[in-house]
Amino acid sequence: MTSKNSEMSGSSPFKMRLVHLDLKGAPPKVCYLSEIFPLFRALGANGVLIEYEDMFPYEGHLRLLRAKHAYSPSEIKEILHLATLNELEVIPLVQTFGHMEFVLKHEALAHLREVARFPNTLNPHKEESLALVRAMIDQVMELHPGARWLHVGCDEVYYLGEGETSRQWLQQEPNSKAELCLSHMEAVASHVRARYPTTTPLMWDDMLRDIPEDQLSGSRVPQLVEPVLWDYGADLDLHGKALLVEKYRKSGFSWLWAASAFKGATGVNQSLTPIEHHLRNHLQWLQVAGSVPADTLRGIILTGWQRYDHFSVLCELLPVGIPSLAVCLQVLLHARRLPVQ
């Protein structure tokens, strides 16, 4: 039996179309998700990327990470059930390097910061850091059995290389910040691959962009992860996106993903979503899809940020962004591949 979403996918260059749920600000109640998941599906989505942050019900020594209003394990199972009913594949997201504020803000874990003053980046030199990340991944995967992908974040790893341990390490030849970054990514992704053989790690690509192609291809990262190229309409032009796709393919990555935005990407305190901006962003991604081989881009993630980081103010809330999401999903579904101008 062919589902409606399967039929819809045939007309889009992006076979996977995921709506990003950023739960680090104004997280929706499960009853709201029960109403909005059918809408996601009707508009053309066939998956959701759920960035739990402190809304995940961490247990044991990780219990301090959960917010007071975090989902319970039974609520997580209900969310997964609702997604299945609406033919939405769920990909959980666990930050494992940068954007670790919700973890490293706690005094008990502050010694794992890369720079003592800032709680955003994990110190990649400490074995305890990797043990922490592994434990977080394992708890999330326990409630997401059978997940085909796990997003491990790794974007905006600010101040990497500026900690005292890193400074000493970088003084030794031939160590570099790129190698420091790749080694931690490899360690995290290797854990996922070894522990969950049917699960592929996804990773935001911004920390990979400036790493030379030969250094990327010389690491194991291209064999372990599928990078997600994000551009929300301000950072890369069409040519820049195409060059990055070519670089990653030459570096050995088998599949790539695109990431656009339907809200939360045009101002830290944005109240109303500028739909035209986000529409142009998606039209450009369709041009990119039209300029690369068909087996290059596995899908696209429509990000919908609630905050720029854990301590930031709220930008547009999810209900405000729904009209923009509708426009963006529909253009992905019906515009097909656009020729490069």
Uncertain runs:
none
Number of E strands: 8
**Which range does the strand content fall in?**
5-15%
Cα-based radius of gyration, to the nearest Å: 19 Å
Secondary-structure element sequence?
A: HEHEHEHHEHHEHHEHEHEH
Q: Number of helix segments?
A: 12
Query: Helix- and strand-based class?
Result: alpha/beta
| Strand order, largest beta sheet | 3-2-1-8-7-6-5-4
Distance between the termini: 39 Å
Instruction: Give the biggest beta sheet.
Output: 8 strands, parallel
Overall average pLDDT: 95
Q: What is the share of helical residues?
A: 25-40%
Outline: globular
Protein name: Hexosaminidase D
Organism: Ovis aries
Relevant terms:
single chain, 341 residues, alpha/beta, Hexosaminidase D
Characterise this structure.
- The N and C termini lie far apart (39 Å).
- An 8-stranded parallel sheet has the order 3-2-1-8-7-6-5-4.
- The chain is α/β, with parallel strands linked by helices.
- It has helices spanning 4-9, 30-43, 73-85, 101-104, 127-142, 164-170, 177-195, 213-217, 221-224, 238-251, 275-291, 318-334; strands at residues 16-22, 47-51, 89-93, 149-151, 200-204, 226-230, 256-263, 297-304.
- It has 12 helices and 8 strands.
- 40% of the residues lie in helices and 13% in strands.
Helix/strand layout:
Blueprint: H1 4-9, E1 16-22, H2 30-43, E2 47-51, H3 73-85, E3 89-93, H4 101-104, H5 127-142, E4 149-151, H6 164-170, H7 177-195, E5 200-204, H8 213-217, H9 221-224, E6 226-230, H10 238-251, E7 256-263, H11 275-291, E8 297-304, H12 318-334
Parallel strand pairs: 1-2, 1-8, 2-3, 4-5, 5-6, 6-7, 7-8
Helix pairs in contact: 2-3, 5-7, 11-12
